[in-house]
Amino acid sequence: MRIGIDLGGTKIEGILLDTTGAEKRRLRVATPVAGGYDAILGALVAIVTELEVFAGTACSVGVGAPGALSHRTLTMKNSNTTCLNGKPLSQDLAARLQRPIRLENDANCLALSEARDGAGQGHRCVFAVILGTGVGGGLVLDGALWPGRQHIAGEWGHNGLVENGPLCYCGRRGCVETLLSGPGLVANYVRRGGLPGLAAHDIVARLGADPVAAATLSDYCALWGRALATVVNIVDPDIIVIGGGLSAIPALYTVGREALAQAVFTDELITPIVPAHHGASSGVRGAAHLWPTPPL
Ligand SMILES: [Zn+2]
Q1: So what's the pLDDT on residue 295?
Q2: Domain ranges of the chain
Q3: Ligand 1 centroid vs 77 CA: distance in angstroms?
């Protein structure tokens, strides 16, 4: 059996998949951020141990985490759980569990999960997008992750979209992430004169009654189309799967799709654009899928 772990900033989720990919057990604990790196490592080991006791056998372990593993230093980078950055999480976890483990960023796990047995199943080229606290993406070709030379394939969130736009944590201005993430949508709403203190889903819910919310969503869909067109023009995926909290915005699939159709270099956009089949579970399922399905 395979264990997948989704290491998030607020919770750690573990899942046990059987040989058919069916979920047998799921555990969830709060991420012990206050305890720092060692506490998080301990929590990961505890989840694996408990799932293996249930499975009654040793399992493969895949981990999805925000940020990425530097192939040069083998340490974590770009993680918003900042105590992980600079730490050799993959090596330390492998040593504690006494087996090799696989670790990928959360967008790649989403892409793998959806390509294997989710919305992208049966498609050769799957591009998956996370629209949430950040904006990421992952590319799966013929069922396998395509990591790229620098391990950044699919990272469209840091393509430049608006000249002199909002400052991004990466040091550049106007990255896709600064405009299409949840915080990016909220910031645009406030810039347009909307009420401060609302979350992205509150703003979306005010669409019918709040003209500033309507204008913000209109901006959002236009930017979405322009940003995604750069991906479609280069990769032309067979399907685009959207995950993350903002994937629930209905206008993405109508007004946003029309904006993409206008921006892309074809007079006929036939690419399916769909929400993640496994929803919030795509990350943890994809982590388990980092190891191949064992023979039945
Ligand atoms: Zn950036």
Answers
A1: 52
A2: 2-108+282-288, 119-276
A3: 14
How far does residue 209's CA lie from ligand 1's centre (Å)? 33
Per-residue burial over 179-218, b = 16 or more CB atoms within 10 Å of its CB, e = otherwise: bbbbebbbebbeeeebeeebebeebbebbeebebbeebbe
C-alpha 262 to ligand 1 mean position (Å): 25
Confidence label for 129 from pLDDT (cuts 50, 70 and 90): very high
How far away, in angstroms, is 258 Cα from ligand 1 center? 26
119-276 in CATH: which number? 3.30.420.40
Q: In angstroms, what is the span from residue 173 Cα to ligand 1's centroid? A: 7
Ligand 1 geometric centre to CA of 22 (Å): 37
pLDDT band at 19 (very low <50, low <70, confident <90, very high): confident
Q: How far is ligand 1, taken at its centre, from the CA of residue 60, in Å?
A: 34
Whole-model pTM? 0.91
SS3 content of the chain, % helix, strand, coil (to 5): 40, 20, 35
Architecture of domain 2-108+282-288: 2-Layer Sandwich (3.30)
Ligand 1 center to 52 CA (angstroms): 39
Mean pLDDT, rounded, of the chain: 94
Q: Do domains 2-108+282-288 and 119-276 have the same CATH topology?
A: yes
Task: Using only the alpha carbons of the chain, give its radius of gyration.
Answer: 19
Q: Rounded to whole angstroms, what are the CA distances from 251 to 67, 214, 247?
A: 28, 11, 10
